[in-house]
Amino acid sequence: MFFFGGDLEPSNPGSLPVAVEKKPRCAKPLRALLTRKNNNLKFTDLGLDRPLLNALEALGHDVPTPIQVKAIPTILDGRDVIGLAQTGTGKTGAFALPLLQRLAASGVKPKPHACRALILAPTRELVTQIMKSVRDYGSRMKLSATSIVGGVSIRPQKATMARGVDIVVATPGRLLDLIDQRCMRLDSVEVLILDEADQMLDIGFMPAIRRVVALVPEKRQTLLFSATMPKEIRKLTDQHLKSPVEIAVAAISTPAERINQSVMHIAAGNKIAAVAHLARENTGKRVIVFTRTKRGADRVVKRLVQDGFEAAAIHGNKSQANREKALDRFRKGACPILVATDIAARGIDVPGIEMVINYELPHVPEVYVHRIGRTARAGESGFAVALCAHDERGLLRDIERLLKRKVDEVPVPEGLPAISLRDIPREPRERDPRAKPQQKKRAHQSRRPGGGAAKGARTAGDQEKKSSPGPNRRRRPNRSKPGGQQNTRAA
């Protein structure tokens, strides 16, 4: 559990610091903000309190992003919000800054086993990312926060929730574990935030989300942020958000314009060699390789390590400690190549990623946008290369249909064939239309030219055997006349 503020951690862990109650500061009128150009706006124009402004200044953040310009004043007014923006646009700051201001202004102490604000995220990496942002923004506020994720011991999480926390950032699975064990309750939640809601839908967390929403009070503020808006998410917003304000700052599922996208048509068996070639050409740069399966990620890492590269894998089968260690090495540059599955696609927030390699194309076109969104963040540029086998060309067409443009092709490295014979599926052999259909001959109707029975045809002996009663057939009793003579029928 984190206590914001350098000198705010109490000597008694069970007691929590309480902020002095003050009246929340009102944001400037939305119309006045939205009519001004975004490049002229600063955080001081959004109605944020001085502690938050000082923290932003210390972090070097002066100019808000478009999603922050539109979302922060609306959230400060207490409205429910649906935020649609692509990855890397500052969604975390858009909801974290007004949330911290609201909680600090009320000065209410959290109850035991409860929290005042709940933030749900699909992956452990994204929870860690949100926690870091909340801790940095609230460094000058008297608030507490903790993360609840799987893959680690649940005992410290139980002990933290027993004292009560202002902000909880959690994954749905471990959160419900604590609720089922009666170590946490949600009847004191004032603000519910669903981050990357479409990703939670893809993973299968929708039943858990519905259960969580049913446990929080009806009188609350609900914020939902997502990169896309599937029908299931739209249905959820219609049922549980009250007159929400929908904020969209970019076209849905549109990658950043600063990403140079390309595709390489190559045999599936030569993809690992192509990854090694691209890594060799970009030595010293941070590269992320995305695969569809955990097994595939481990296989790619094994081959890259054999070729002399520093590479690590991150996926659901890795423990939380191993995942954090791999991300830390990747962030520090000690391991420049990170191989990940889609489960971690939106939870990786590492600055300076210069290339994203799609080792396998995703089945859902929107996932492609989330993958390549790991590069070209914070105004920088990046490269995205997709390795497309013959059986993935249909997936590439779906991606191009979503992007509304063709992806530029790049040549295959020398010495590697583009397509191998085993990658091309065999097509069914076409039949000659002039050939007459062959009819299957029946054995008992076929005869040899000499009048004899054809091979395999039934003979008289066979007919006799068939007509003779079997062992299970009931015989007709043989009745005899008086005198011992049998009663036979005339032939």
Q: How many H/I helices?
A: 16
CATH class of the largest domain: Alpha Beta
Strand content: 15-25%
Computed structural class: alpha/beta
The CATH superfamily label of the largest domain reads: P-loop containing nucleotide triphosphate hydrolases
In the CATH hierarchy, the architecture of the largest domain is 3-Layer(aba) Sandwich
Summarize the structure.
The protein is α/β, with parallel strands linked by helices and 491 residues long. The chain folds into 2 domains: 247 residues, 3-Layer(aba) Sandwich (Rossmann fold); 165 residues, P-loop containing nucleotide triphosphate hydrolases (Rossmann fold, 3-Layer(aba) Sandwich). 34% of the residues lie in helices and 15% in strands.
List the helices and strands and how they pair.
Layout: E1 2-3, H1 30-35, H2 50-59, H3 66-76, E2 81-84, H4 91-106, E3 115-120, H5 124-137, E4 144-148, H6 155-163, E5 165-170, H7 172-180, E6 191-195, H8 197-203, H9 206-215, E7 221-226, H10 231-240, E8 245-248, E9 259-265, H11 271-281, E10 286-291, H12 294-306, E11 311-314, H13 320-332, E12 337-341, E13 353-358, H14 365-372, E14 382-388, H15 393-403, E15 408-409, H16 460-467
Parallel strand pairs: 2-7, 2-8, 3-5, 3-6, 4-5, 6-7, 9-14, 9-15, 10-12, 10-13, 11-12, 13-14
Antiparallel strand pairs: 1-4
Helix pairs in contact: 3-4, 4-5
